[in-house]
Inverse folding.
């Protein structure tokens, strides 16, 4: 992304330093913290919410909340874990708002030029099952399988022990399989 | 337990999610600029940290505004009195009493005379937004409060006084979500249905465990050493009992007497030495029952303070019968132990029926040594009480 390349020099400084500067009100440092995390945050929100517009809104709310509450972060090394927790909470809010507003049955959605291939149907079923999972389950599956992170990296992103990642991964996978089975 | 990395479902899921998550670079660029612009126009909360002024030390700083608020929301805790010296503090280690109700929350301020409680004066709001809080827990130093907002199940932490609430979790089950701050201040147990998350004060989930299927966890309470979490277990058949579990999810066992059909257990709280759990026992009866003192029905007290050793099932005799035997129905009583173990606090919601006699509805302070009970005054509807440590 061109944006990140433009900010390469700033991003090159340590995150701890950026966080310290951002806590002191330095918006340039905050922008440098946001840049390398923006695309993956949008991917996470979009995966959870299945809507580009909602995802962009949620990510904007998330980073603004992080900025406003940055003084509450006691351990800067957990910035990413904190960010991901905030993103999950905001995504959950968006899902709740959506459920309060309206529900559109899948069969009622006007899909232009539907792709009837078996692969496409399988993909639709898989995503429908994914959408029935809890936000934490979706989050951990996205980190592992969409972002391709190792167990240790997922632990770092979520701020939880590796053993907990493994057990939560296992539970999320089982939940996905059960959700798929109930569709058949 | 193994997690095969290359399970076919993983690859298909990754492919499906990649299709779902395509965003143009131009959109990201625009979003980044929007975020930075928003940061430039939004002040950061607590830049340099807000000053922490503990109500326990300077209780009168907010008194005028609090009393106005009391009047505005119709809190009727007032009994009498001019300004007293301190919120209720029976012993040097006990901070103020904190009460929540249907129309908000706040400190219960109680006048003292010669170390004894005389009268409740009123409520001082701590979180001035009128939310109904379904559970609360203080940080060990008394400077922060974790609480659950009743209607939506969101869990917040707020610095007291004057902080802005920070959401740290939300409950999916929306059923008697509970919070308990660990004695070392590093973790908050959040109970949600059958699951307990151990969350740090920034909202990061450090560990989770789940109890047996078919039971709910509510009203968690850490032991003083942090080696146990007592909680109320509710089964599908509506049996309420006190259980205890290690913070790693092991050694789960029932500590109160075997489920008694005539009694439910509420609000476990630890003795300061960590050897015993106190809790409130509430008689279970479908409707108003005859007053035994007047010659009818059984003589089971409506509310009892009970004590049991966490290591076994050694139930102790009733410590105190809180509200006597009355023709009444008790709704949502609440119980707390002073941090130094010197006193108990019980909030009752006894609704007298017919010519009910003896029903006293409100807040009772009970000396743990003499078991003498004092009636402090009426509380807000659906009172829940906690007792803060001395900051």
């Amino acid at each position: 992304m061109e944006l990140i390349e433009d900010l390469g020099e700033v991003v090159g400084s340590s995150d701890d330093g950026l966080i310290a500067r951002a806590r002191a009100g330095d918006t340039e440092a905050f922008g440098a913290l946001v840049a390398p995390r923006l695309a993956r945050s949008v991917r996470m929100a979009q995966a959870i919410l299945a809507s580009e517009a909602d995802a962009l809104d949620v990510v904007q709310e998330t980073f603004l909340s992080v900025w406003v509450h940055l003084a509450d972060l006691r351990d800067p090394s957990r910035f990413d874990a904190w960010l991901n927790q905030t993103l999950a909470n905001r995504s959950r809010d968006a899902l709740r708002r959506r459920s309060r507003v309206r529900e559109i049955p899948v069969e009622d959605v006007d899909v232009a030029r539907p792709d009837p291939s078996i692969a496409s149907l399988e993909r639709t079923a898989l995503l429908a099952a994914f959408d029935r999972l809890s936000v934490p389950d979706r989050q951990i599956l996205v980190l592992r399988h969409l972002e391709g992170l190792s167990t240790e990296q997922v632990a770092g992103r979520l701020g939880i022990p590796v053993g907990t990642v493994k057990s939560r991964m296992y539970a999320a996978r089982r939940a996905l399989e059960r959700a798929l089975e109930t569709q058949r | 337990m193994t997690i095969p990395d290359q399970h076919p479902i993983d690859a298909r899921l990754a492919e499906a999610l990649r299709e779902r998550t395509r965003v143009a670079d131009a959109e990201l660029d625009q979003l980044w600029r929007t975020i930075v612009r928003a940061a430039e126009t939004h002040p950061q909360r607590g830049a340099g940290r807000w000053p922490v002024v503990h109500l326990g030390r300077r209780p009168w700083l907010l008194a005028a505004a609090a009393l106005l608020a009391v009047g505005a929301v119709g809190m009727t805790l007032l009994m009498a009195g001019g300004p007293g010296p301190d919120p209720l503090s029976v012993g040097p280690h006990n901070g103020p009493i904190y009460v929540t109700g249907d129309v908000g929350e706040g400190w219960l301020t109680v006048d003292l005379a010669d170390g004894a409680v005389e009268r409740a004066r009123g409520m001082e709001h701590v979180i001035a937004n009128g939310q109904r809080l379904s559970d609360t827990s203080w940080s060990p130093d008394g400077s922060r409060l974790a609480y659950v907002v009743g209607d939506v199940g969101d869990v917040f932490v707020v610095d007291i006084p004057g902080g802005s609430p920070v959401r740290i979790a939300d409950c999916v089950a929306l059923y008697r979500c509970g919070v308990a701050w660990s004695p070392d201040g590093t973790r908050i147990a959040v109970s949600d249905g059958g699951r307990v998350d151990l969350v740090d004060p920034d909202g990061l989930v450090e560990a989770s465990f789940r109890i047996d299927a078919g039971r709910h966890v509510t009203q968690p309470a850490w032991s003083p050493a942090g080696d146990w979490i007592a909680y109320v277990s509710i089964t599908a058949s509506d049996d309420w009992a006190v259980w205890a579990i290690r913070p790693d999810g092991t050694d789960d066992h029932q500590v109160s007497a075997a489920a008694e059909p005539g009694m439910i257990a509420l609000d476990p709280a630890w003795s300061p030495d960590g050897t015993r759990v106190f809790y409130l026992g509430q008689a279970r009866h479908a409707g108003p029952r005859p007053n035994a003192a007047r010659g009818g029905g059984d003589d089971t007290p409506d509310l009892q303070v009970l004590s049991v050793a966490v290591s076994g099932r050694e139930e102790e005799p009733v410590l105190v019968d809180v509200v006597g035997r009355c023709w009444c129905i008790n709704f949502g009583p609440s119980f707390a132990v002073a941090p130094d173990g010197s006193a108990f606090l019980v909030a009752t919601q006894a609704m007298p029926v017919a010519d009910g006699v003896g029903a006293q509805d409100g807040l009772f302070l009970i000396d743990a040594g003499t078991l003498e009970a004092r009636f402090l005054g009426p509380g807000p509807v659906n009172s829940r009480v906690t007792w803060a440590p001395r900051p």
In short: Chain B has a mean pLDDT of 70. The radius of gyration of chain B is 23 Å.
